[in-house]
C-alpha cells in the first residue's frame, strides 16, 4: 500500500502532533565549518549524497551505501552507468561527490516507481555546492563517530510492515539509538517525530533483534548541527497505541492491549483508508449548471489519476467552488480574505474578476481553446498510440504539453508552430541530445527496439508520417527554422518547456473539459472589476507604523499600508514616497529622492537637514575570522591567524604555509590556493 513517508502525508495529526517536539532533548554542536545556503534544485539530492557518502565513509561498502540508487538504476536499465559512477566514489573529494550527485538521481525510481519522471539536477554541479556538501559529509561522519558506532544502515523492517504501510527504510542504528538523518534548514517538526516513531514501532515488530535493545529515538540535522533525542520510556503507552492502530494499521489483539503484540495483517485498516475515496465518488458532470460549494475531499478525489497532487490542506480556504456550465468545469478556491484562486492540483492562479464573469464565459473560453488546439492534440495522441503499438513495454506514450514520452529519457517534441517532430534524449531539462530522426535516436539509446520499429515503419502509414515529420528540425529554435547538419547535436536551454508547460495546462480542457488556467484576452466580453474587500482581515501582515533604516542611511516610517504591493513611507526629512512594496521596505532599499547616491551619514546633507540630530545607527561590524578553520579546494585545511578586515586576512595551511592579504570571502568559499 503506502510507504512510511506517503502515509504521513495522509495523516491528520492531533494538535501538537502525536509525538510533540517538546518531548525531545536538544543538543547543538559547534565546529569551524561555515555551511552556506544551497540552491533549491540541489536540496533533495544534497540530502541523499550526504547520507550515502557518510554511510560509505563510516566503513560500509559502496554497494550497501548506494543500494537504493543502484536499485533505481536497474529499474530504468541504467545499471551499467550507475556502476561506472560508483567506481568513481572513493573518498570525500570533488570527483567522488560529483559522481554521488549523478548517482543518487536514480533513487527516485526505486522509491516512487518507474512511471515517475523526475526533475533531475540540471547541468554541471557548481563548485560551491560540492564544497558545501563535503563539509556536511565530514560533519555527519564526525557526529556519528562520537555518537556511534553505527551498526546498521539503510535497513528495512521485514516482519513489521502492515497491510497499510508496506515499505520504508531507516537511516542509522547504533547500539542503543535509532537515528534519522534530516539534511534541512528547517527545525524539527511533528512530521519528523512521527516518522521516527513509526520506524521504531515497525522495528520492534520486525525480525531485527537489535530493536529490543533500543532505548532512544533521535534525529540529527547536519545543516543545523543539532541532535534531538528522546528516551522511548518517556513516551506514554497511549501514543504507541494510537500510532500503531490509527497510523500504521496494526490490529488490536483480542487477548491483549499491548501494542507490541498487535497483528500487522489488518485489512480493515486498508478498507477504512480507502473508504472515503470509495464513498465519495465525486463526479462533477452529475451537477447542474451553476456555482456549487464542494468539499476538499471532493476536489482531491477528482484529482486522483489526473494530477500528482497530494491530499491538500488549504489552511487559508474559506470554501471550494465548482463552476459547471455545459461540459466544462472549473474549481475555484475562495480564501479567507475573499480572493479567488483558480485551482490546478494544489497550484493556484489569481482570478481578477467576480466568479460570474468566469461562469458566463467558460463555455466560450473552452470552445475557443478547442477550436485552435484540438487538431494539434489529436495528432499528439495519434503519435502516442502509434509508438505504443510498436511495443507497450518499451514505449510509454505519455502525452504532456508538447511532448510524447518514449521512456524516461527519450522523447518526441511536437512543435506546435509547424507540426514537426523533434526526437531527443535528455537526462536533465537543460541539456538535450537532439536527433535528426527517430531511427537515429533509437539506434543510440534503445537499440533493442530498432528492428521492431523498422518493421512497423513498413506497414504503418501513421508511423511513416511520424518518421517523415521527425526530419531536419532543431530543438533550440522553437519555431523550427533551423536544420540539423549532423545526425545528433547537443542543445542547451529550456525554451521548449516554456511552451510545453502552458499547453499542458490547457490540455486538461481536451482531456477532461477541465479549465485549469485562464488566459485573459481570449474571451471578448468586458469583465466587471471586483469590488475591493475592505475588511480588516484582507490586510493581514500589515507593517503600518514600522520603522527601518534604508540604504541611504535615513529612517523611514510606514504611514500607509494598502497591501503587500502598495505602501507609503515617510523619511525623517519629511519626504513621502508612495506606491512602494513591503518587500522593498523589508530589504531596506526604498530610495529617498532628496538623497543622492552617497550612503555616508557623515557627509549627507539634505536641504539643511542636520544628520547629527538623527539617531545614528552604527554599521554592525562583522565578527573577526581569527581562529576559524576551513577546508580549501586543494584538500588542505587552513586557519585564519590574522584578520585586518574583510579584504585582508592571513591564513596558515596545515603544512605550515602562510599566505597573506587574502579575503574572507575566498576563505569561506575554500578558494585560497596552496601556492607560494
Based on the model shown, name its key terms:
about 675 residues; alpha+beta; 6 domains; 6-stranded mixed β-sheet; 6-stranded antiparallel β-sheet; about 20% strand; globular
Explain how this protein is built.
The chain is an alpha+beta fold and 676 residues long. The chain has a 6-stranded mixed β-sheet, with helices on both faces. The chain has a 6-stranded antiparallel β-sheet with strand order 14-15-16-17-18-19. A 5-stranded antiparallel β-sheet has the order 9-10-11-12-13. The chain is globular, with a radius of gyration of 30 Å. The model is unreliable at 114-122, 472-484, 524-539 and 597-620 (pLDDT under 50).
Radius of gyration: 30 Å
Low-confidence stretches: 114-122, 472-484, 524-539, 597-620
User: What strand order characterises the main sheet?
Assistant: 2-8-7-6-5-3
Helix content: 25-40%
Provide the number of structural domains. Answer: 6
Tally of DSSP β-strands: 27
List the helices and strands and how they pair.
Layout lengths: L1 E2 H7 L14 E4 L14 H15 L4 H4 L1 H9 L3 H9 L6 H10 L3 H6 L14 H21 L2 E4 L11 E3 L4 E3 L2 E5 L8 H16 L10 E6 L4 E6 L5 H11 L19 H14 L9 E5 L1 H8 L13 E9 L2 E8 L4 E5 L2 E4 L4 H36 L8 E2 L2 E3 L4 E5 L6 E5 L5 E5 L2 H8 L4 H10 L1 H9 L18 E5 L2 H18 L34 E3 L5 E7 L5 E5 L4 E5 L1 H5 L42 E3 L5 E7 L5 E5 L4 E5 L1 H5 L8
Parallel strand pairs: 1-4, 6-7
Antiparallel strand pairs: 2-8, 3-5, 5-6, 7-8, 9-10, 10-11, 11-12, 12-13, 14-15, 15-16, 16-17, 17-18, 18-19, 20-21, 21-22, 22-23, 24-25, 25-26, 26-27
Helix pairs in contact: 1-9, 2-8, 4-5, 9-10, 13-17, 15-16
Amino acid at each position: 500500500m503506502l510507504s512510511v513517508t506517503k502515509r504521513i502525508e495522509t495523516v491528520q495529526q492531533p494538535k501538537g502532533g502525536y509525538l510533540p517536539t517538546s518531548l525531545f532533548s536538544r543538543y547543538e554542536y559547534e565546529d569551524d565549518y561555515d555551511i552556506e545556503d544551497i540552491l533549491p534544485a540541489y536540496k533533495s539530492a544534497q540530502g541523499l549524497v550526504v547520507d550515502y557518502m557518510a554511510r560509505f565513509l563510516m566503513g560500509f561498502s559502496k554497494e550497501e551505501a548506494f543500494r537504493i540508487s543502484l536499485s533505481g538504476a536497474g529499474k530504468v536499465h541504467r545499471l551499467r552507468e550507475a556502476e561506472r559512477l560508483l567506481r568513481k566514489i572513493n573518498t570525500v573529494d570533488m570527483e567522488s561527490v560529483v559522481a554521488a550527485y549523478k548517482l543518487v538521481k536514480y533513487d527516485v525510481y526505486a522509491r516512487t516507481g518507474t512511471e515517475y519522471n523526475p526533475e533531475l539536477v540540471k547541468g554541471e554541479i557548481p563548485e560551491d555546492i560540492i564544497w558545501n556538501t563535503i563539509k556536511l559529509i565530514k560533519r555527519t561522519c564526525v557526529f556519528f563517530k562520537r555518537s556511534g558506532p553505527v551498526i546498521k544502515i539503510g535497513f528495512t523492517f521485514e516482519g513489521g510492515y502492515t497491510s497499510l504501510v508496506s515499505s520504508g527504510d531507516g537511516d542509522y542504528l547504533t547500539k542503543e539509538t535509532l537515528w534519522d538523518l534530516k539534511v534541512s534548514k528547517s527545525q524539527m517538526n511533528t512530521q519528523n517525530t512521527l516518522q521516527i516513531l513509526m520506524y521504531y514501532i515497525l522495528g520492534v515488530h520486525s525480525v531485527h533483534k537489535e530493536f529490543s535493545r533500543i532505548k532512544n529515538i533521535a534525529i540529527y540535522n547536519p545543516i543545523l548541527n543539532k541532535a534531538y533525542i528522546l528516551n522511548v520510556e518517556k513516551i506514554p503507552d497511549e501514543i504507541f497505541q494510537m500510532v500503531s492502530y490509527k497510523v500504521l494499521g496494526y490490529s488490536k489483539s483480542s487477548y491483549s492491549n499491548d501494542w507490541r503484540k498487535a497483528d500487522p495483517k489488518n485489512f480493515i485498516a486498508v478498507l477504512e483508508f480507502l473508504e472515503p475515496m470509495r464513498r465519495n465518488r465525486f463526479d462533477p458532470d452529475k451537477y447542474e449548471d451553476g456555482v456549487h460549494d464542494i468539499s476538499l475531499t471532493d476536489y482531491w478525489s477528482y484529482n486522483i489519476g489526473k494530477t500528482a497532487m497530494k491530499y491538500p490542506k488549504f489552511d487559508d480556504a474559506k470554501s471550494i467552488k465548482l463552476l459547471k456550465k455545459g461540459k466544462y468545469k472549473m474549481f475555484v478556491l475562495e480564501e479567507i480574505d475573499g480572493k479567488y484562486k483558480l485551482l490546478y492540483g494544489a497550484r493556484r492562479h489569481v482570478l481578477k474578476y467576480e466568479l460570474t464573469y468566469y461562469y458566463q464565459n467558460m463555455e466560450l473560453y473552452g470552445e475557443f481553446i478547442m477550436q485552435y488546439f484540438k487538431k494539434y492534440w489529436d495528432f499528439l495522441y495519434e503519435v502516442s498510440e502509434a509508438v505504443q503499438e510498436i511495443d507497450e513495454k518499451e514505449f510509454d506514450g505519455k502525452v504532456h504539453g508538447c511532448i510524447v514520452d518514449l521512456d524516461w529519457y527519450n522523447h518526441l517534441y511536437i512543435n506546435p508552430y509547424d507540426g514537426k517532430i523533434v526526437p531527443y534524449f535528455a537526462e536533465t531539462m537543460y541539456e538535450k541530445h537532439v536527433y535528426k530522426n527517430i531511427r537515429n535516436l533509437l539506434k543510440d539509446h534503445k537499440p533493442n527496439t530498432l528492428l521492431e520499429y523498422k518493421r512497423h515503419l513498413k506497414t504503418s502509414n501513421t508511423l511513416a508520417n511520424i518518421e517523415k515529420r521527425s526530419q531536419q528540425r532543431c530543438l533550440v529554435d522553437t519555431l523550427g527554422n533551423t536544420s540539423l547538419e549532423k545526425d545528433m547535436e547537443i542543445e542547451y536551454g529550456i525554451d521548449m518547456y516554456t511552451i510545453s508547460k502552458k499547453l499542458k495546462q490547457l490540455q486538461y480542457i481536451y482531456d477532461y473539459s477541465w479549465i485549469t488556467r485562464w488566459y485573459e484576452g481570449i474571451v471578448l466580453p468586458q469583465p466587471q472589476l471586483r469590488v475591493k474587500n475592505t475588511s480588516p482581515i484582507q490586510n493581514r501582515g500589515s507593517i503600518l507604523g514600522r520603522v527601518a533604516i534604508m540604504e541611504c542611511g535615513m529612517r523611514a516610517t510606514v504611514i500607509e499600508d494598502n497591501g503587500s504591493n502598495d505602501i507609503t513611507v515617510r523619511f525623517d526629512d519629511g519626504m513621502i514616497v508612495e506606491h512602494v512594496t513591503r518587500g522593498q521596505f523589508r530589504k531596506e532599499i526604498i530610495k529617498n529622492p532628496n538623497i543622492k547616491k552617497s550612503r555616508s551619514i557623515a557627509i549627507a546633507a539634505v536641504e539643511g537637514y542636520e544628520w547629527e540630530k538623527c539617531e545614528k545607527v552604527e554599521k554592525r561590524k562583522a565578527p573577526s575570522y581569527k581562529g576559524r578553520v576551513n577546508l580549501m579546494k586543494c584538500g588542505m585545511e587552513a586557519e585564519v591567524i590574522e584578520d585586518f578586515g574583510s579584504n585582508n586576512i592571513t591564513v596558515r595551511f596545515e603544512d605550515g604555509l602562510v599566505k597573506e592579504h587574502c579575503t574572507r570571502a575566498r576563505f569561506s568559499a575554500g578558494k585560497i590556493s596552496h601556492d607560494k
